[in-house]
What we know:
10 strands
Amino acid sequence: MSFGSRLRERREALGMKQSELGRLLGVTGSAIGNYETGVSSPKAEVLCRAFDALECDANYLFQDAMSSSRGEVLSLREQALLRKYRALDEHGRGLLDLIADKERERVVLPAAEASPRTRIIPLLGNSFAAGVGEPDFGNALEDYAVPADTRADFAVRVNGDSMEPWLPDGSIALGVKGTPRDGDVAALMVDGAFYVKQICIDALGNLYLFSLNRARADLDLTVRASAGSNVSCFGTIVLEKRLPLPLR
């Protein structure tokens, strides 16, 4: 906004007419109109009287012209607080400083802490098949960023459609460490191949790996306890809800 626009804004905020302000400044109402439209500018002595009549200072009326060279400009309320602060003695200023610091801790710092933050969890480098097991080629780890409050200890890439729609092909699934229960979806390795499957173990120790997409039941896998297979479990995949086991 220009000087004239600020002048008009402040005059109207105080409920003054151009003629009323003109009388306070010793000029005509028409002159005030010229100042506000930019037709003319007030002389220095008139401008000084304007600061008193409008209860503001040059920072307010000229803030747009000065902001690029002087940085942030104080509002009228901030200017009033600054004048009060400067009028205090050292004891009073110390008290206000203490209050300001405490209020900043109450308002500003919690707001900053509430801003979104992330943390890094390992993304297992090879994809975990939702179909035929992906072979282990060293399983290099990658960094994967998640929101700081996310419940996850690791992440895996899902390959195939047998876990759709809950774990689509190509998606990143988040997991937590710990031994999965029957009905959980687990990330595991069986004889050197990676799988993401819903699991169940029977009384004989046989491990059943189920596809959530029952249209791909052909990709279910049974690992017999007597087979001596090498099975490693990374943990449980986090889903929005717990899903029932299919009928066997």
